[in-house]
Design goal:
The chain is an alpha+beta fold. The protein has 2 domains: about 40 residues; about 110 residues, Rieske [2Fe-2S] iron-sulphur domain (Rieske Iron-sulfur Protein), CATH 2.102.10.10. The chain is about 15% helix and about 35% strand. Strand 6 and strand 7 form a beta hairpin. The longest helix is centred in the first third of the chain and has 28 residues. The protein is elongated, with a radius of gyration of 20 Å.
Length: about 170
Amino acid sequence: MTKSGKVFIAFFICLLIAGYVMASPILQLFYQDAEPYRFTGYAFTAEFDPIKIAETSDVPDGSGYSFSVKLNLPFAGPQKVRQDIYGIITNVDGEYHAYSAVCPHLGCIVRWDDDQAPEEKIFCNCHNGAFNPVNGDVTAGPPPRGLDIYEIFIEGDDILLKSLTGGEE
């Protein structure tokens, strides 16, 4: 094979790799239910001991409370990566719920907004997206799906984060 043929093949392979890397986020726009790293075939589970994220007094009835925690998540083999997890806890009629605070539309952080309608209290300022505080479902705006549900439980006055996978919600 000639030198120019080898250069052409190397260029073509680099072009394919670059196209794949650039196409993956675009494909995720069309496949909103995609799990993390769906197009690379890599997925991980986030296993951790329960973490205190709030006290019940922080979230009175009819309110929401934002929290963040750092988790050591799997990266590659035995390596771990510290990951910031942002969430929001709601208390509606004495029932506590927790969701990811990352809007599934463009990744903005949602917040509790008392000025919104009761079914739209979890609000995203970026594009006026709103979510139901009881189940995390989209109630207004462009978000393609509801918020990811976090599993929590109450122990005494402490609200503990158990899992990022949703639990019984």
